[in-house]
Amino acid sequence: MRVAVVGAGVVGLATTAALLRRGVEVSCYERSGAPMAERSAGSSRIFRLAHATPDLVRVAQVAQAGYARWSAEAGAPLVGTGGCVVSGGDWRQWAAAMAEAGAAVEIAGEGPARLRLPAHTLPAGALIDPSGGVIDVDAVRRHLVALGGEAVIAERVEALDPGPRGVTVRTGAGSGSYDAVVLAAGAGTSALAAQVGIETPGTLAHHVRFTFPLRRPGLWPAWIDKPADGMGTYQHQNGPGTWAVGSELDPALTAWEVGRDAASAASEAAVLRYAREHLDVEPRVVGRLYCAPHPGLGDGFEIRRSGSVLVAYGENLFKLAPVLGELLAGATVAGSTPAMRDALVR
Ligand SMILES: Cc1cc2nc3c(=O)[nH]c(=O)nc-3n(C[C@H](O)[C@H](O)[C@H](O)COP(=O)(O)OP(=O)(O)OC[C@H]3O[C@@H](n4cnc5c(N)ncnc54)[C@H](O)[C@@H]3O)c2cc1C
Description:
The protein is an alpha/beta fold. It has two domains: 2-40 and 140-201 and 299-344, FAD/NAD(P)-binding domain (3-Layer(bba) Sandwich); 84-130 and 205-291, D-Amino Acid Oxidase, Chain A, domain 2 (2-Layer Sandwich). It is built from eight helices and 19 strands. The protein has helices at residues 10-21, 54-74, 91-100, 137-148, 189-195, 251-254, 260-278, 321-334, and strands spanning 2-6, 25-29, 44-47, 84-88, 106-107, 126-129, 133-136, 152-153, 157-163, 166-171, 174-178, 180-183, 207-213, 222-226, 232-239, 242-248, 287-291, 301-306, 309-314. The strands form four sheets. The chain has an eight-stranded mixed sheet with strand order 5-6-4-14-15-16-13-17, sandwiched between helices. It has a six-stranded mixed sheet with strand order 8-2-1-12-19-18, sandwiched between helices. A three-stranded antiparallel sheet has the order 9-10-11, with no helix packed on it. Helix 1 (10-21) packs parallel to helix 4 (137-148), helix 1 (10-21) packs across helix 8 (321-334) and helix 2 packs across helix 3 (91-100). The chain binds flavin-adenine dinucleotide. InterPro entries: FAD-dep_OxRdtase, FAD/NAD-bd_sf, MTOX. Keywords: FAD, Flavoprotein, Oxidoreductase. Residues 2-329 form the FAD dependent oxidoreductase domain. Its cofactor is FAD.
């Protein structure tokens, strides 16, 4: 079987590795000069079991096992041990979902669990996910490139032409015929999916995560905060003495039409103000990580099929990449269309 994977982000590379493990001949097309250079760029992401529903928690548990397998293969831990705090929003519902799925969860202030965060303003209540932590993105990139890097072709896919016996993949440099295609092209997915009749979210927004020097060194938990009367944030340690903060701004400030520069400036002003008021960090930005997400998708993913083409999309996919890779590879070989719940059937 010959399969083309479009996109060498974390999802495309995980799928490529899982297909190669099944003995499939794979070409993974990537338009950027390097793998994991768009939404999967940077050096860190949050892993958490904490999610809004028991099914999502269970899918994250499968991902946790996947990261443990990748860590064993790589000979180094790919996910840190700091834990993850979730506060604001529906955190109590998230805690109940974790308990229902059998995941360990602690409630700060009830029992021995104590909230430790590099912040002056601590939330009134929160859950602590002891399985959460920071994913070492550089180590994941190295591992996935070691597993499947030789399959990567540095070409931009211009068109997908389905035929009676498979799909022709056209690039600026030529074309190739494949039995099946997995489309995992991140921000490039909707344009190619439309060519095979699949509609996926196409609206993009600007998002920037900012890094600050920590005032108190140490191992801090990651933190997701959705206060009722303030800006939603996700935060985590992304280096020995640094703290990364991403924010949920008014969508009007980060809409695609606003432009990258204006959206980035508005984000920086808001996050700096927040850092000054609430965090135990030096209020100066020492790092920026930009990406163009589809706004409003939240956790989880969708997989759709048109003939021999499988399309995967979603947001916050890094933590679930081992699950997506296995699911997409298995479904490609079987010719099936998996739902997220199928990740739970092992
Ligand atoms: C700042 C930031 C913070 C985040 N925090 C978290 C977090 O804490 N936890 C978490 O789980 N997730 C987080 N995410 C989201 C997560 O990183 C992404 O969901 C995930 O990396 C997406 O991977 P992907 O492979 O789907 O997309 P991408 O990494 O974007 O990969 C798609 C690839 O396809 C390529 N491509 C596109 N079109 C074409 C084409 N026509 N031909 C060839 N190649 C093409 C692109 O160049 C790209 O490399 C964060 C994202 C950002 C940017």
